[in-house]
Amino acid sequence: MKIIHIASEINPFAKTGGLADVVGSLPASISRLGHKVVMFMPLYKQVSEKYSLEFHSDFPLHTSQGIKTVLIKKKVIDKDTTLYFIGEHSYFFRDVIYGDYVDNAERFSFFCRAVLAFIKKEDLSPQVIHCHDWQSALVPLYARQDRYFEKTCFGYTIHNLAYQGVFPYEKIHQISLDPSFFTPDKLEFYGKINFMKAGVIYSDFINTVSPTYRDETLTSKFGWGLEGLLDTRSKDYYGIVNGLDYTEWDPANDPDIFVKYDSLSLRKKEENRKKIMKKSNLLVRPGKALFVAITRLADQKGMDLLVHAVHKIAASGHSFILLGSGEKRYEDMFLHLEKTYKDKVRCYMKYDFAMAHKLYAAGDFFLMPSKFEPCGLSQLISFRYGNIPIVRKTGGLADTVENISENLSSGDGIVFEDYNTKSIDKAIEKAFEVYKSDSFDAIRKRIMLNDFSWERTAKKYISLYERYSNA
Ligand code: ADP
């Protein structure tokens, strides 16, 4: 099959979160299973500056803002995989890739239309076009207006329902749609335009990134107003857990960590802990663990519970390191913790890829008390690095982390259910126990052998492509 993936960020070219990891890995696994894959993403300023890409072509595209020139650059990943970048200087040469820009609707509608125009111009004739999140959600809607795409199967993945691409009604004119699309069965959403609705309505199948999150999104608590619409598509709505790129995340072969190790040389993992603690001016105390968190500083990630947990961890003599970026109010909370527990808590407020690797390698426990979590990659990375995840039972965390049993002989993390301080307190106490126990190393070894490789996930997507493109 020929399969096209369209996304606003693809690792390593641009990444703000899990979406980039997924679209950076899934297509390669699909092509390894014998399919041709073409990918599209915007040509951001940051990408242009960092990568030397091959010029492919340019062509004009009519928009409500006049004729714009679409610049196409490309990167051949391997013989079966090509990535095209859609450039337009005024839209994508900006300091941040999303930002609070007033023309985000125009920017990403342009991206969608330019991709479709290019596919047609080059006659790529894909069997499947697979779009991701709100930024590419208009693709199936635009394509349905064009007979060229009559036989194409459209798949749509929701990586995070909390971000739907909602814009004022007036934008309808700027995104090349006539007002007949502004009705509740199309794009209208509480008086505004909702891009994600287009992906859900006009695609043949939709999915999100874990079975539990799929079910949660059908409830008013987690549906963000789209639960009713998703319910109308429930027959074609799936939950598929993401995989992890085991080449990128491999402690035995990770150039970013201090000392490489595997499940048979856990002693070397200790070196990683000591080195990062020293570098962070934290006191290494015998018999005390290092807890880490690497996260967007956002409400979704359970920041209030995390702060509460850090007090308990530090007050008990254990250490904590945070690597995070996001909302200022949370930064302030963590900086306050750092001041309170000078030799036990360190908080790095930045997005730092290499530092993330070091911390996964250094940690004994990884904290992830999310309010909701579509899939979550950090717990899978933590498994790989023998860093025991402490998670709340929600979404993909519920599907991937099995609570460690009372006698510690089974399970791969510490799972708590209720979103309150009492529950996380119990989870932290259990971590202290696990750390002291004779089973600690056995648990770390066990979780390092978990298999969340992409191949399994890619096969599930391929079976959906086959089912829906023959339907
Ligand atoms: P989300 O996509 O909701 O942010 P995920 O757990 O699915 O959460 O994916 C987060 C990814 O981003 C992981 O690879 C994690 O290591 C990485 N990450 C998050 N914050 C940072 C940071 N400050 N620096 C480096 N990497 C980060």
Automatic annotation (TrEMBL):
The lineage of its organism: Bacteria, Candidatus Muiribacteriota, Candidatus Muiribacteriia, Candidatus Muiribacteriales, Candidatus Muiribacteriaceae. This is Glycogen synthase. The keyword Kinase does not apply. Belongs to the glycosyltransferase 1 family. Bacterial/plant glycogen synthase subfamily. It is an enzyme of class 2 (transferase). The keyword Transmembrane does not apply. It comes from Muiribacterium halophilum. Coiled coil: none annotated. Residues 282-433 form the Glycosyl transferase family domain. InterPro entries: Glyco_trans_1, GS/SS, Starch_synth_cat_dom. GO terms for biological process: glycogen biosynthetic process. Synthesizes alpha-1,4-glucan chains using ADP-glucose. GO terms for molecular function: alpha-1,4-glucan glucosyltransferase (ADP-glucose donor) activity; alpha-1,4-glucan glucosyltransferase (UDP-glucose donor) activity. Residues 2-231 form the Starch synthase catalytic domain. Its EC number is 2.4.1.21. Keywords: Glycogen biosynthesis, Glycosyltransferase, Transferase. The gene is glgA. ADP-alpha-D-glucose binds at residue 15. It catalyses: [(1->4)-alpha-D-glucosyl](n) + ADP-alpha-D-glucose = [(1->4)-alpha-D-glucosyl](n+1) + ADP + H(+). Pathway: Glycan biosynthesis; glycogen biosynthesis. It comes from the Bacteria.
